[in-house]
């Protein structure tokens, strides 16, 4: 995995998950100091911060993970798509550039 974007509830938990997955600290997105624990919005906010920083590149592998009280948790992985400018000939609005 290239990036860890987790539920922004606790920096220690994010660090532990990153350690277990072998993801270097500079590849872990932590924005608690900026956004706090915004519950379900924390992953999209953290992902947006990463994308707007210019560090996230097309083809990067990203793990998204969240946890709740008790034993509830969920994770998924994705490959960040190549963005296509709307002004490119033949580009559809909101296209990811993926082939059909």
TrEMBL record:
Keyword DNA damage: no
Annotated Beta-ketoacyl-[acyl-carrier-protein] synthase III C-terminal domain residues: 2-80
BP GO annotations: secondary metabolite biosynthetic process
Listed Pfam families: ACP_syn_III_C
Transmembrane helix keyword on record: no
Keyword list, A-Z: Acyltransferase, Transferase
InterPro entries for the chain: ACP_syn_III_C (IPR013747), Thiolase-like (IPR016039)
MF terms in GO: acyltransferase activity, transferring groups other than amino-acyl groups
Protein name: Beta-ketoacyl-[acyl-carrier-protein] synthase III C-terminal domain-containing protein
Source organism: Streptomyces roseochromogenus subsp. oscitans DS 12.976
């Amino acid at each position: 995995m290239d990036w860890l974007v987790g539920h922004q509830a606790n920096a220690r938990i994010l660090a532990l998950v990153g350690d277990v997955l072998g993801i270097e600290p500079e590849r872990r997105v932590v924005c608690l100091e900026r956004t706090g624990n915004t519950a379900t919005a924390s992953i999209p906010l953290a992902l947006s911060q990463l994308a707007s920083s210019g560090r996230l590149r097309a083809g990067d592998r990203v793990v998204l993970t969240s946890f709740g009280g008790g034993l509830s948790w969920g994770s998924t992985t994705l490959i960040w798509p190549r963005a296509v400018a709307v002004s490119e000939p033949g580009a559809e609005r909101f296209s990811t550039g993926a082939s059909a």
